[in-house]
Amino acid sequence: MVVSARSKSRRQRSGISPRKWARGFVGTLLALPLAVQAGTSVRVAVAADFYKPLETIAAAYSRQSGIHVVASAGSSGGLYAQITNGAPYDVFLSANDLYPRQLVAGGLAESASRFTYAQGVLVLWGAQASPAAGPTTLRSAAFAHLALANPHFAPYGQAAQEVLERLGLLKQLHSRLVFGEDVGQALQFTISGGAQYAFVSSAQLLAAGLWRSGSHWVVPVSLYSPINQQAVLLVHARNIEAARSFLRFLRGPARPLIARLGYRLPEVVKSQPPAHR
Amino acid sequence: MFDWSPLVLSVELATVTTFLLLLTGIPLAWWLVRRKTVVRRAAYALVALPLALPPTVLGFYLLLALGPHGPLGAFAVRWFGASFAFTFTGLVIASMVYSLPLVVQPLTSGFERLDAHHLETAALLGAGPWDRLVSVVLPLLRADLLTAAVLGFIHTFGEFGVVLMVGGDIPGRTRVLSLAIYDHVQALEYHQADLLSAVAVGMSFTALLLLYLITQRRR
Amino acid sequence: MLTFRFQLRLGGFDLDAQGVLPAQGRSVIFGPSGAGKTTLLRLMAGLERGAQARIAYGDELWEDREQGVRIPPHRRRIGLVFQHPVFMPGCTVEQALRYGWRRRLPAERRGAFAAAAERFGLSAQLQRRVVTLSGGERQRVALLRALLAAPRLLLLDEPFSGIDTELRATLLHALEALHAAEALPMIYVTHSAEEAVRFADHLLLLEAGRVRALGPADMLAADISLPLARRPDAVVAINTKFVQHDANDGVSLLAFSDGELWVTASRPAAPGARLRVLVHARDVSLARTRPQASSILNVMPARVVALAELPDAAVVVSLRIGNTPLLARVSRRSARELELQPGCAVYAQVKGVALQNP
C-alpha cells in the first residue's frame, strides 16, 4: 500500500531507528572490560584490617614465586556473603574463624586448608596523650564515648566486649559505647574526635603510624579469648596450585613479616600435606 | 521478642528530618528561584552536592563537624555540654544535609513553574507576602510539596553511609533500620535481615506508590 | 494626581515615560502593540522591579528609587484586571470573588457581597467553577473580584480584547456605568482607537516606550499632528445631554455645548441623561455652502483649523464647531476643489445614521 511505504521511509529518514538504538546499547556493553586478566595470579579476598599487611606479604611472595596476587578487601561478613554467592576468589583471609568455618561447612572451602594465619592484638587507643589509655582511665569513666567494633559479629568487637566484662566495667560504660562496623571505623570515630578512646588492632595503629601518637594500652591476652584470623582455600579456585603455594607462604616464610606488622603468631601446628584434588 | 526499635528509630528520624527540611526548604527553594544571579546558581549547585558525594565521605566530614572539635559540635558542647556526635540530634542534622537536594529540587521545580500572575493577582487583591505564600503558593504547589516530603522521607529512611559514620550504631539511639539489617547480615542472621528488609521495602514502595497515584491523578 | 516617571530597560525594550494623570475620571493609555502600554501599567501597579521609578498618588509617595522608598503593590489599595485573568485551579466564582473581599476591613468594603454579585449578573454562577465559564463571564468575575477588594484606583489592561465586539460593547458600558456610580478612577489600556476615544476623559499616547502626548481626550483625538487623528478609523467623542425623543421617526435629539445632534435611537434615554457620542471622521463630509434638501440630518457650521495630507490620497481636516473639535476625512481632490484652508468656514455634515450611541 502506498500509505505504509511512505510512512516507513519517513521513519527511516527521521534519524535514529530503534534497531540502531539497540545496537548502540549492546555494543557499549560488549566494549566494557569483562573478565579479569587470565594468567598466573592468585585472587585473594582479604578482611579490611589485613589489607595493608597483605600488600607487603604479597610483594615478598611475588618476588619469590613470580606469581601475582590480586587482593580485594572488604568486611569479613561482606566477603563471606559474596563468596557464598559465587564471587570469583581463590583464597579467603578472614578476620575471624567463624566465616571460614561456615564456608567449609557449606562445602565452599577445603577443610584441610583452614588455618590461623595471625592472631589479632587488641589495643586500647586514645587520641590524647592524657588521660592515658588504660584500665584506670576506663574505670574513671571520664570520657564521653568509647568506640569498638560491633561485638555482634566483629571479632575485635567481641574481644573488646570480653575485656570490659572481665574488668567488670561493661554495665558502667554501656551508655558510652559507640559501635563501628569494624575496627577501621572504630578508629575513625576516635580520629574524628567523636569518641575519646577506641578498641582497635595494633596492626592498624602501626599501619596508620599512630603507635607513637596519643596513648595506648596493649590489652593483656588473659583478658580476652584469642582473635584467630583464619585463611582458607576456596573450592572454586581457578589456580589451585598457585593458591596453595600462596597459603604455604603465608603459613611459613610470611610469619616474621606478620609478627612485625603487629600480629601475634599462633603456635606452629604440624601441617598435614593437603589432600590432592 | 524481636527488636523493632531500629524501625521505630528510622521512622522517627525520617519524619523529623523531612519536617525540618520542608520548613527550611520552602524558603530556600523560593530564594533560589527568585532571581538568577551567579551567587544563587552556585548555591543551587551546593544544595545538589550531597547527591554527588559518597555517603561515607559525607558522613565522615559531618562527624568531624558535629564532634567536639568541629564547629557545630563545639557549639553544642558550650551550650548543651555534649557534642552532636553519636546522638539522634546529630543524625537529624546529618540527614538534613544528606536529603536536602531531594527535598529542595521538587520545590524549586514547582516554584519555577509557578505563574507569577497568580502572585501578582493576589498582591493586587491585598495579600501580603506571607499571605500569598499560604493562600496561593502552597495550594498551587501541593503536588511538589508531597513529592518533596515523600522523597525526603524515604531517602532518609534508607540512609546508610552517613548514619553509619555519624551515629555510632548505638542500639535504641542511633541504630537505625539500615544499620540493623547490615549488622544482621554481617552476623549471618539472614532471617532477621530478611524480615527487616521486607518491612523497609514494603514501606518505601507503598509511600512511592501513593505518591505517584496522587500526583499523577491531577493530569 | 498620579505623578510618575519611569525608566526601564527590559531585554531589547527601552521605556522612558513620565507624566501626570488626574486622580479622578477615566484615563486611557493608548498605543500600538509593543509600545509598552502593559509595561507602563505594571510599573504603575508596582509589579515591575529594576526600574528607575518615581510615582506618587496624591500626596502618597508610592515609590522613589533614589530615596529608596517603595510601597509594595498589596498596600497601594489599587486593583488591576489583566488581559487574561488567572484564577486558582478548581476554584468557584464565589471563592474567587471572596479572595479580595475577605482581605479588606469591613469598613472599607463597598456595599454587600450579594448585592454586588447581583449587579454583575453573577448571582446564578456563584457555585460554578471558574474554568467552566466563557471568556466574557470570566472577565466579569475578574472585574468584580478586583472591585470587591475596594481599590481606590482601578487599572485595566485591555480587559476585553479577547471578547467579541457585541459583548465588549456591553461590558464597556457596564464599566462606564460603574465609574459613574462609584466615581472610581480608572486607568484603561487599549490599542483600539475607538475604545480609547469613547472611554477616555484623559488620554496618554504611548509610542515605542515614549509618551507621545498626554492631555484631555477630546483635544488629543482631534489633533491632526498626532497619529490618532490620522488613522482611517479616526474618531472624536462629544459629550451630550439628552433632550427629547421622537418615537415615530426613531430618533433622539442630543444637545452639546455648541449645538445639537439627531441620533438614531429606539428608546428615549432618561431626561437630562449624559451621553457620550462618537463621530467617525469618515462619516463627516464638508460643503462650502449650506446644502439644501440633503438626506443628512445633522448639518452644522464649522471652522477649519488645520489640514493634513494622508497616504492613499486622503486629507484629514480638523474642525471646530464653536469650541467642540471635530474631524472630517475627505479625498485630496475634494480638498483641493473646495479650496479648504485653515480659517475658512464650512458646513460639516454628519450622517445621522453613523453616530454611535453608547
What does it look like?
The complex is a heterotrimer of chains A (277), B (219) and C (358). With 277 residues, chain A is α/β, with parallel strands linked by helices. Chain A has 2 domains: 41-119 and 228-260, 3-Layer(aba) Sandwich (D-Maltodextrin-Binding Protein, domain 2); 120-223, 3-Layer(aba) Sandwich (D-Maltodextrin-Binding Protein, domain 2), CATH 3.40.190. Chain A is built from 12 helices and 10 strands. In chain A, the strands form 2 sheets. Chain A has a 5-stranded mixed β-sheet with strand order 2-1-3-10-4. Chain A is globular. The model of chain A is unreliable at 1-6 (pLDDT under 50). Chain B has one domain (5-53, 85-216): MetI-like (MetI-like fold). Chain B is 79% helix and 0% strand. Chain B contains 11 helices and no strands. In chain B, helix 1 crosses helix 8 and helix 6 (116-124) packs across helix 7. The model of chain B has no long low-confidence stretch (mean pLDDT 91). Chain C is of the alpha+beta class. Chain C folds into 3 domains: 2-77 and 152-222, Rossmann fold (3-Layer(aba) Sandwich); 86-151, no CATH class; 235-354, OB fold (Dihydrolipoamide Acetyltransferase, E2P), CATH 2.40.50.100. In chain C, 23% of the residues lie in helices and 37% in strands. Chain C contains 9 helices and 20 strands. Chain C has helices at residues 37-45, 93-102, 113-119, 135-148, 165-182, 193-199, 217-222, 227-230, 332-337; strands spanning 2-10, 13-21, 26-30, 52-57, 60-64, 69-70, 78-81, 153-157, 186-190, 202-207, 210-216, 235-246, 251-256, 259-264, 274-280, 284-287, 298-310, 314-321, 324-331, 345-350. In chain C, the strands form 4 sheets. Chain C has a 6-stranded mixed β-sheet with strand order 7-8-9-3-10-11, sandwiched between helices. In chain C, helix 2 runs parallel beside helix 4 (135-148). Chain C is globular, with a radius of gyration of 22 Å. Chain A binds chain B through residues 75-78, 80-81, 98, 102, 144-145, 147, 150, 152-154, 177-181, 185, 188-189, 192-195, and chain B through 60, 63-64, 66-70, 73, 82-83, 85-86, 164-165, 168-170, 175, 182-183, 185-188.
